[in-house]
Amino acid sequence: MTLMLKPGTAWSDAYEQCVLRAPEAFHDDRVLNRWDGRWQRDGRPAPGVTPVDGTAVAGPPRLDRGTAFRAVRASVDEHRLWRHVPLAERKARVTAALDALRAHRDLLVLLLVWEIGKPWKLAAADVDRCVEGAHWYVGEIDRMIAGRAPLAGPVSNIASWNYPMSVLMHAMLVQVLAGNAVIAKTPTDGGLSCLTLACALAAREGLPVTLVSGSGAELSPALVRGRDLGCVSFVGGRDAGGQVAASLAGLGHRHILEQEGLNCWGVWEYGDWEKLAGQIRKSFDYAKQRCTAYPRFVVQRSLFHDFLAAYLPAVRSVRFGHPLAVEAPDDPPPDLDFGPLIAGAKVKELADQVDEAIAKGGIPLHVGSVTEGRFLPGQDTSAYLAPVAILTPPPSSPLFHAEPFGPVDTVVLVDTEAELLAAMNAGNGALVATISCDEEETARRLAEQVRAFKVGVNAPRSRGDREELFGGLGASWRGAFVGGELLVRAVTRGPEGERLPGNFPDYTLLPGPA
């Protein structure tokens, strides 16, 4: 049956609603920045394109360096006032902001679908995790803040595009709750309108939120090296994270730098293939465009035939396509594993890496086709990539040692436990890992030697919510760990000489079993 765009969900419909519901932040022709306590029609709007079908969308209004410094100075002034606001009032204002986010939930979800290509179900989970997670902190903040004080300056947030609500906005709300003014740079590649609407709703409740757009080169001197900042929080890739870390050197800023890692799934002396097949299918959620995705399977050679028998049907069952393409007007959005990647350029980059890996000896186990997806007639599909799996990628390939951030799996075969561990630790630290092994004692022993912050046994690990801690080992993380009480500790001051759990240049302090 020919598919159609679900009525009422066009980008023009979504943006019209933004202008109607938050006219202070959205004009008919552009989105605004927010600093010095008001929305400002400044910066040069860059063109924006949705990865969903190539439609033009609102682009970020990029500020210059001088304006970025003025925005930071204004946030410092807001911070000096906000840190003295009583906790009860902070809780009341954050709660009111959360109520507003709930009231605009479906619009926030629709914006995420268009701006970063998430299927409806996953976009809704992103919004809901933000709201419910921050609400949990409102109920727990009294005990977490006891004996602690806000930082000396605002928290500067620079985050990737893939989780603008459940990671970035969630962190900002907790930082505000803890007594800090907050600054956020809108992700360059997507999420501008969703984040702007969320910040507009928060600002209406009196929360000290600054939201600016611009290139990293222009804004980094202010958002990273600004001398009056209290903390710099970064979520993104290792290259950009390394630049942020270098910029922070010698400044003494509190920092939280969450970087990518090659998260591995080891299969050793294992036999529950039906369970693993379901886990493999689930691992393709959002095209593996998340920091806790599993793009590498390290498999005991003697089990490879059983692994392949489970893997191939699972990867062939993955559903992808246009997140709003339906068969009939009243149909709900389709239940997809993923939509597009963030941009057509990313698809080309990965396709070139796959071709090169195969040309140099990697064995293609599965190469899907975009024609297998669900699309509107004649739509632009340049940002879509079907699942791919390569056995034994050559060491010269980026797919051998780096996270692809797309639906590309690599499989490495090993014969000994030592080889298994070496292969799982090839990325110099990871955020998560998993060992599938029938003997729990063996699995636990192996898990202890994997350099990942969280290691699952016969189950995947994720970033987690509420009480669950999060961090990384090796090059996957620098600075204070977060999650649960640690997130509040990371953005507040404790006793003199306090050593925060984290991965710092001069020490690594783990908070206990993760």
Task: Count the E strands.
Answer: 27
Provide a count of the helices: 16
Distance between the termini: 48 Å
What would the average pLDDT be, to the nearest integer? 95
Outline type:
globular
Structural class: alpha/beta
Gyration radius, in Å: 23 Å
| Percent of residues in β-strands | 15-25%
GO molecular function: oxidoreductase activity, acting on the aldehyde or oxo group of donors, NAD or NADP as acceptor
Pfam families: Aldedh
Keywords: Oxidoreductase
InterPro entries: Ald_DH/histidinol_DH, Ald_DH_C, Ald_DH_N, Aldehyde_DH_dom
What does this structure look like?
The chain has 514 residues and is of the alpha/beta class. Helix content is 38%, strand content 19%. It has 16 helices and 27 strands. It has an 8-stranded mixed sheet with strand order 13-12-11-14-15-24-26-27, sandwiched between helices. Strands 19-20-21-17-16-22-23 form a 7-stranded mixed sheet, with helices on both faces. The longest helix is centred in the N-terminal third of the chain and has 26 residues, at 120-145. It is globular, with a radius of gyration of 23 Å. The mean pLDDT is 95. Pfam families: Aldedh (PF00171). Keywords: Oxidoreductase. Residues 46-485 form the Aldehyde dehydrogenase domain.
